[in-house]
Amino acid sequence: MTIEQFVARSEGEWRSMRSGHSLAFQQFEQILSTITVKILGGNDPRVIDLLSSSPENRAKYTTPFLIQWEAESDWSKEISKENSSGSSILIPIPKTKSSGLLIRSIGYTEAIPLISTYCFLSDGTFKLKSKYEKTTTEERIWHLSENVRCRSSVVYTTKTSGILQTSFASEIKHLKP
Amino acid sequence: MTIEQFVARSEGEWRSMRSGHSLAFQQFEQILSTITVKILGGNDPRVIDLLSSSPENRAKYTTPFLIQWEAESDWSKEISKENSSGSSILIPIPKTKSSGLLIRSIGYTEAIPLISTYCFLSDGTFKLKSKYEKTTTEERIWHLSENVRCRSSVVYTTKTSGILQTSFASEIKHLKP
Question: What is the value of ipTM here, to two decimals?
Fold first, then answer.
């Protein structure tokens, strides 16, 4: 699996069922949301802008994309306000065939720009590691079929590596008629 | 990661938070349970009995173990009765350093004996595939630390490969004082 193949598979509108587990409190959280992934051109002003923040990587980028997410209002009580909807520009910078960097305009756990590292496991599972100031996240995405994928995440404290939360999403793509 | 190392890491009593996703109905399910994994000796009569059902593999087995699970009664409405508690004997039969068979006395999705196949991904994630009469399951287990692991599963229909259910569990081991 290459990052270009992975981004191409990811493109589209996904209906997401996501469960969160707070390990210390044994609390469950459940969120229905829509996630849209769209490949962007290299001339998109948002891409040019983000690349300018990472000049050393500018020459090597591939398939920039936009992620937009919107949670359903029914579940609003359980969703922290800042994460209920939003969007982020992402730009992969391959280092090898199966690993590299991912520049993000806005992180998910903390709303700041960051550079994550990614790699693919032997079965094509995508692994993404992001280090924020207070937290570190590890995300996995694996496709079950053309239109179904799973996504898991773990949030650690950056200082002590304590595990704060895990989550798991089952996502179905709306295939175009 | 070898199967022996994996079984040794798995031994102990785990507190499990599990979320199930029914994709067709967009229904969530959540279950708290206790899972106990115990390594058994080769002289255990349950091990001898199970090996006798698979004579061609008898000579090559390693670290048989017992899994017992018990769901909390609070959540009983959401738990189908036959899966709320139970136990299973499992016997690994390595074929290569990172793959092999797993003989099980009782399957989870359907309560019949079966032989599953396992392999380890490049980062040590354990993958287990089990083919029952009506359903096929793929399970993944990966350790986040000595005492925290994640477990995901997908249930497919064996005939059409349609995806019936996904699930994800976050599990914490009770460390001995």
Answer: 0.89
